[in-house]
Design goal:
Blueprint lengths: L7 H11 L12 H8 L15 H11 L21 H8 L11 H15 L4 E9 L2 E8 L11 E3 L7 E6 L4 E6 L5 E3 L10 H12 L6 H15 L4 H14 L45 E3 L2 E3 L9
Antiparallel strand pairs: 1-2, 3-6, 4-5, 7-8
Length: 310
């Protein structure tokens, strides 16, 4: 990618916004933790001859002595390449609202809106590419690089004649219904790498049917009845659905005190210290095992739901 598509004006706006206390580029993490997640700090050079690596001088000058460097120092540091390379800058920006970096969804949306408002003038936009535990993961793209359309990842539970479908855009998986669209369900939310779980399906169903806030048991039963009805007189497939429900849908559960990748949501933003000795560097524990979305009698299960046109 050629450097220079993103103008100096845009860069200044981004740098100023990302250095504000409420939208600081490292989010809920301290700067060394954030940078270590993106870069091999122990292999990058130090600008302080007393230290061997970028990680050590970053800890010295931004944790122990935070006034040594300005809050927006990262955007002009040559070793990270954000000042003169569009691709490097964009790759950095899309990590700022990552669920591992920020857990406040309102703040994530504020950050994304701002970035899109300034990047649009240079032809880029920040778009959702995936999700973790319902929290969005973003990527960047050139505006107009593909046909925009609602995602149609799963088409299933048809009642009556099956829908007739044509493919409008193979890159974006944009489909067009020619006939019988009203007979089927279309799951149009982004799919994570894990596929689609029953909890995610019922969350979508609750929004679609206006059932948000109703008892979980009622919400789970409603899509189950629709799926069961769509199978018609096929006893074998009905038996499979019943078995699935007995094992995975007996109790609809959601992560509550757990965050993304099983990390407890106990991190809170603290005021960044200025010109005082900071506490010892916080060390993040490795993520715990993924939180099961479906449980049955204490047994952890992670079987995804696979929809298909019936």
């Amino acid at each position: 990618m050629s450097a220079g598509r993103i103008t100096h004006v845009t860069r200044r706006l981004v740098e100023g916004f990302a250095a504000m206390p409420t939208t600081h580029w490292s989010g809920d993490l301290n700067e060394p933790d954030f940078l270590a997640w993106l870069y091999p700090l122990e292999k990058l050079p130090s600008t302080d001859r007393r230290y061997d690596t970028a990680g050590r001088d970053n800890f010295q000058h931004r944790v122990l002595n935070p006034c040594d460097w300005p809050d927006d120092w990262i955007f002009t540091a040559e070793r990270f390449g954000l000042a003169d390379n569009d691709e490097a800058l964009l790759a950095f920006l899309v990590e700022m609202p990552h669920p591992e970096v920020r857990t406040n969804l309102a703040e994530v949306e504020q950050l994304r809106d701002f970035l899109n408002k300034v990047l649009i003038h240079d032809g880029y936009e920040i778009v959702q590419a995936d999700a973790i535990s319902g929290a969005p993961i973003f990527d960047y793209r050139l505006i107009g690089s593909g046909v925009r359309g609602s995602m149609k990842n799963l088409i299933f539970a048809a009642l009556g004649p099956k829908p007739e479908i044509v493919l409008d855009d193979a890159v974006n998986n944009d489909l067009h219904f020619v006939r019988n669209a009203e007979n089927c369900l279309v799951y149009d939310r982004p799919l994570g790498a894990h596929g689609l779980t029953w909890a995610e399906l019922t969350d979508w169903w609750a929004d679609r049917q206006g059932m948000t806030g109703e008892p979980d048991r009622d919400i789970s039963r409603s899509p189950y009845r629709r799926l069961y009805q769509s199978l018609g007189d096929n006893d074998a497939e009905r038996r499979i659905l019943r078995t699935y429900a007995e094992r995975y849908v007996r109790r609809r559960s959601r992560p509550s005190s757990e965050g993304v990748r099983g990390v407890p949501l106990r991190r809170r933003r603290t005021r960044r210290r200025r010109c005082r000795t900071a506490p010892a560097q916080r060390v993040l524990r490795p993520p715990a095992p993924a939180v099961p979305l479906m449980t049955d009698g204490g047994t952890e299960d992670r079987m995804p739901f696979n929809g298909a046109v019936r």
